[in-house]
Structures are given as structure tokens and as C-alpha cells.
Amino acid sequence: MPTVSDTLPPVLISEADIAGRVAELAEQISRDYKDKGDIVLVGVLKGAFIFLADLSRRLTIPRTIEFIAVSSYPDSDVSSGAVRLVMDVRGNIEDRHVLIVEDIVDTGHTLVYLKELLESHHPASIRTCALVHKAEHAEVDVEIDYLGFGIGDEWVVGYGLDYAEHERTLPYIGTITPED
Ligand code: PRP
């Protein structure tokens, strides 16, 4: 079982920088969807719960909230990209404008899977929003329409992101060095 150090992870993206960028994204999304009626934000559990909460409360357009949960197949390796649906959206998204809200896009497999899955519900449109993107790790091409921050190859925790389920509630995004 991995352990987490007692000391706080060093800051990669501060609380103030996150808040500022979330406000900018919310402004941009509100502007883009202003004439489209309401949108449905689909938060991807678990990691997106804090980003979704902050982003959604800053929007100035009508919006509803859904959640979806996925996980990698337990006995597949990371790079295989096999994603499994754990919980589908509860509401009807047919003919709705859908915005998928992710905490992090790493290889891109999860977002590709989610876009295909949600397309099968026949929404009016689908766009994607992610707080952070590890471009160096991309294995598949997937468009992120609204991106908070590009980051390097570091292991990040906080603001919803975990290491073995720890550190999700850290108010900033920090880096850790996983222990063996
Ligand atoms: C993270 C993140 C994305 C996915 C991205 O979820 O929330 O859903 O990984 O990875 P990918 O681009 O390589 O597919 P994770 O599996 O860590 O689950 P969690 O959100 O419950 O922490």
C-alpha cells in the first residue's frame, strides 16, 4: 500500500492561480453558450468534483449538473486505455448541450471513451473542459475545448486529484514523488 508523506506537497499551481483561471474559464464558457439555452455539465468522478463545484458556481448561464464515473480495467496496464463505465449519467442528455468536466487529461483515453459514450445519448453538442493536461503523456488525440493549465510529467495531487485516494482536498495543486 503506498504511503503519503506527512509534509505538504510542494505547490505547482497555487490556490489563487486556480481560482483566477476557473473564473476565466467560466467567463469564456458563459459567453460561448450564452445564446444556446442551458447546458449540462457532466463531472467525471471522482477527480472532477471540486473543479466542477467551483466552475459551475461561476457560470452565468443556466446549467444543470450530472455525474459519470469510469475506471480503468483493474487488470489492464495503464497504456492499454481500457476504460470501464462504473456509473452513467442519471438525467436525459438527448438534445442538450453537454460539457464534460475533467480534472486531468493524461493519456486521453478516458476522454475519448466518454465522448463516444455520451454521443450515443444523442446530445445537441459535446465539448470538453479539463483543469490540467499532461500533453507529454498523450496517447490519443482528443480536443480539450476549455483547458485550465498544461503541465509537465509530474505526479500531481490536490483540488480533486489524488494519490492512492489521498490529498484530494488539498486546496492547491501540488507535486509528489510516489514511494515504491
Ligand atoms: C483520472 C482523471 C481522468 C483520467 C484521465 O481519473 O480524473 O478521469 O484519470 O486519465 P487518461 O487521460 O490517462 O485516461 P482516475 O482514474 O485517477 O480516477 P479518479 O478521478 O477517481 O481519481
Describe the overall structure.
Helix 1 packs across helix 2 (49-58). This protein has helices spanning 15-32, 49-58, 109-119; strands spanning 11-13, 39-45, 63-72, 83-87, 97-105, 125-134, 146-151, 155-157, 173-176. Helix 3 links the parallel strand 5 (97-105) and strand 6. By secondary structure, it is α/β, with parallel strands linked by helices. The protein binds 1-O-pyrophosphono-5-O-phosphono-alpha-D-ribofuranose. 1-O-pyrophosphono-5-O-phosphono-alpha-D-ribofuranose binds next to strand 2, strand 5 and helix 3. Residues 44-47, 71, 102-110, 162 line the site of 1-O-pyrophosphono-5-O-phosphono-alpha-D-ribofuranose.
What is the topology?
Blueprint: E1 11-13, H1 15-32, E2 39-45, H2 49-58, E3 63-72, E4 83-87, E5 97-105, H3 109-119, E6 125-134, E7 146-151, E8 155-157, E9 173-176
Parallel strand pairs: 2-3, 2-5, 5-6, 6-7
Antiparallel strand pairs: 1-9, 3-4, 8-9
Brief description of this entry?
The protein has helices spanning 15-32, 49-58, 109-119; strands at residues 11-13, 39-45, 63-72, 83-87, 97-105, 125-134, 146-151, 155-157, 173-176. It is α/β, with parallel strands linked by helices and 180 residues long.
For the structure shown, list the relevant keywords.
180 residues; alpha/beta; 3-stranded antiparallel β-sheet; 32% strand; binds 1-O-pyrophosphono-5-O-phosphono-alpha-D-ribofuranose
